[in-house]
Amino acid sequence: MNMTPPTLPTLPTRIFMATDFSGRCDRALARAALLAKAWNSELVVVHTVHPGEVALRDRLSSGAPSWRRPESWALTLEHALRADLEAEGINATARVVIGSPAEAVQQAVDDDGAGLIVLGIAKDARMERIQLGSTVDALVRRSRVPVLNVRGRARAAYSHVVVATDFSEPSLHALRLAAHWFEGARLTLFHAYMPHGSGLTPGAAADDVWRTAAVQECDAHLAAAALPAPVAAGLQRLIERGQPEPLLPDYVASTGADLVVLGSQGRSGLARALLGSTAENLLHTLDCDTLVVRRD
After folding, report:
1. Separation between Cα atoms, residue 261 and residue 161, nearest integer Å
2. 2 part of a folded domain
3. Which among 33, 82, 166, 190 is least surrounded, fewest beta carbons within 10 Å?
4. Are residues 53 and 91 in the same domain?
5. Residue 235: CB atoms within 10 Å
6. Is 4 within the bounds of a domain?
7. Same domain, 226 and 135
8. Is 157 helix (H, G, I), strand (E, B) or coil?
9. What is the structure's pLDDT at 100?
10. Residue 277 lies in a domain
11. Residues pairing with 48 in the sheet
């Protein structure tokens, strides 16, 4: 398997957390603050607002007398966001950007050089799938920096990190990043394989051949990753026959894993292949936080 050596991942010096002031973002804010403290990173909390809403609010208030004419709606939102952060004791910069959520957040990230985007997803968000899901999916597809989707409460650092792999170069980059960013966590490399034509030619012998091939590919993948010796020694490898969509959520639920890392981009990036492939994909069905890592 030919792979160019990935560049060594670095900890983000600036983290962007996107909020819409809803309850689902409280967990994401807590996780972003925890990561910023652990990594000594700057935290920027961003709220996006549609330009039409700003124009309407400002127009409605324009007829008031000058002595009680309010400030612009965007500035009012920024003051409210800053007050919320201060009340929670969170050291962060508050920003309000005008535009559609995905485009505005991505532009702000590009302008300020953030190394991570943190988003909040409700634990049972099926009814919000159309609006929230489109924002998350758009950022995952377009973002040049990792995107962390938070579901769980941020009580402590991540304890069990699962890197889902298809042995592609994007997955290799995701593994190296996970090992560096979440040093000290239990690390599991998860691979689900489905033998081609297995429904037509079942049998233990055929399964053994495919599993042996998967194990060999995993060995080569880990050799290319060149993980630090202590990390490599503690890493658990899990190679399972079947499709990742049902197997990975089941594994997460069974083991209590609190973060799944997916590599994206490239022809075989796992997150890229799964996005849009089913009505409910991994980003919206995993009952834990997910980190999608892009590899150009």
Report:
1. 7
2. no
3. 82
4. yes
5. 17
6. no
7. no
8. coil
9. 78
10. yes
11. 97
Residues 168 and 296 in one domain: yes
Provide the number of structural domains found in the chain. Answer: 2
| Helix (H) or strand (E) segment spanning residue 178 | helix 169-181
* Cα–Cα distance measured from residue 73 to residue 55, given in angstroms and rounded to the nearest whole number: 8
Q: Are 26 and 161 within one domain?
A: no
From 70, 92, 89, 72, select the one nearest 19 (Cα to Cα). 92
Backbone φ, ψ for residue 119 (5° rounding): -125, 155
- The answer as to whether 1 is a domain residue is no
Question: Domain check: are 272 and 214 in the same one?
Answer: yes
122-150 burial, b at 16+ Cβ within 10 Å, e below that, comes to eeebeeeeeebbebbbbbbbebebbbbbb
Q: Beta strands 289-294 and 147-150: pairing type?
A: antiparallel
Residues 65 and 103 in one domain: yes
pLDDT, tens digit (0-9, with 9 covering 90-100), for 80-128: 889 989 988 999 999 888 887 788 888 888 888 899 999 986 444 443 4
Eight-class DSSP state of 74: H
Contact (Cβ atoms closer than 8 angstroms) between residue 162 and residue 261: yes
pTM (2 decimals)?
0.84
DSSP 132: I
As given in the structure block, the two tokens for residue 197 are 């034509």
Range of the domain at 265: 157-296
Whether 140 and 179 share a structural domain: no
Residue 38: band (very low, low, confident or very high) from pLDDT cuts 50, 70, 90: very high
Phi first, then psi: what are they for 221, rounded to 5°? -60, -45
Angle between helices 169-181 and 204-225 (to 10 degrees): 60
pLDDT, tens digit (0-9, with 9 covering 90-100), for 8-19: 688 999 999 988
- The total of other beta-carbon atoms located within 10 Å of residue 80's CB is 14
How far apart, in whole angstroms, are the C-alpha atoms of residue 33 and residue 51?
28
CATH of the domain at 260: 3.40.50.620
